[in-house]
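Entry 14. Structure prediction run on the chain below.
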Amino acid sequence: MTTATLTIDPGFRVGPVDPRLFGSFVEHMGRCVYTGIHELGHPDADERGFRGDVLELVRELGPTIVRYPGGNFVSGYRWEDGIGPVEDRPRRLDLAWRALESNRVGVDEFVAWCRSAAVEPMLAVNLGTRGVREAVELLEYCNHPEGTYWSDLRRSHGAKEPHDVRVWCLGNELDGPWQIGQKTATEYGRLALETAHAMRRVDPRVELVACGSSNTRIPTFATWEAAVLAECYDVVDHVSLHHYADPTGRSLAERLAGSAELDRAIEDIVATADHIGARRKSRHRLGVAVDEWNVWYQAGFGGEAALDWAEERRLIEDTYDVADAVVVGSLLVTLLRHADRVSIACQAQLVNVIAPIRTEPGGPAWRQTIFHPFAQAAAHARGEVLLLEPQVPSYDAGEHGDVPLLDATATYDEDSGALTLLAVNRSTTDALDLTAQLRGFPGHRLIEATALTAGTAPEAARTTNTASAPDAVVPVRNERARLADGRLEVSLPPVSWNVVRLGPDPHRAPPDAR
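Output returned:
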């Protein structure tokens, strides 16, 4: 039997949960947009072509902010192609994914869809093949009320009120040799500085995200951030970080430790940014926007150069199993554990392309296994993240080194009294008996405990959800959870994502009641 202990105390806090930690990402790539969120002629499509069945699942998933339109796509994108009468929009070659882009969906349609989904839009500007002028014109189109060329053009297209987009990405992955318009760090840093200055003159309320490294294994990791931020530190609000956990060729034990690299990367980027701030004697403190993250079987993708020109092709539509869902849960735990510095996070992508939601053209939409940890965390992680220091054995996770069997965090909403424990058991064979001391929460009761798991059979970790079996993997009630005398005891199954919810007992008077 494996055991773990921890103390959950409201006096030890990491930082507030920014709702934008539960963001997502829509790129013009594969079938994310067309036959994903949008499909003309689908039985569930509205008059604009947006699929109602997908919209319903998006609302259930619970993202708060959605990044658009890329991704690699944005570095060759002319945003003006996607406005005005749809029948007049040009068809273009998308050089990023060797695709034919119809431009049936553009900024106006996307923002309208965001309003329907009750999410905040987060737009990226093209700093690969374009620059300052195009960025400020897009901002003027979106945010200026009226009385100028671009704002009046938006109004003529039916959007009388400004789109009021607050968060803007200054390009995408411009450190990467695969990027259209790749730049050196100094080139990009100067361009980001100039673009930020100009955009703030149009709308000083905007939040700006500078491009950080595209991944942690690129040779310029951290040196890129240092050079970029040396140019633009004081005019941006966040620096981006992208992370994909690749299960390809790894053992189950190694896969389950996939969040360890993200944990280190966040700490490295924070240290780099703070070093630049110290050098500049700046009181400004940057947030980290992990605006692309997920599990991606990346080694199995042959690259865009091998693709033929096509429209609405199936592209990296990974099918996720139980183990992948557990890793996604662990990645969410990591993001929350760094809530003092991680300001925005976007799971990539929303539909079909390495996504929690899958669709068939003209057919159904369903939840992948990774849908569930995101939906549960987005629904229940509220208030402030609490500092946890579990006492638990570690195991050898190969390239990740020694990794604890338990990966956990907790959030506490002081207004409602809601306390949520999010926990992953990385053991591939044994349940983990967790004891949590809750002396700081007198009068609380156990509301619900759930586990998403495959059980003890090794092959069960490969169980997936499909169109024909959309609920093969769902969270189930954990009957082995109890709360007594200020102590929570719960048994976490092997290879599992667990959520334990507690709250004030309405039938008990608060301890300080007279």
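The CA atoms of residues 45 and 51 lie 4 Å apart.
Filed with the rest of this week's runs.
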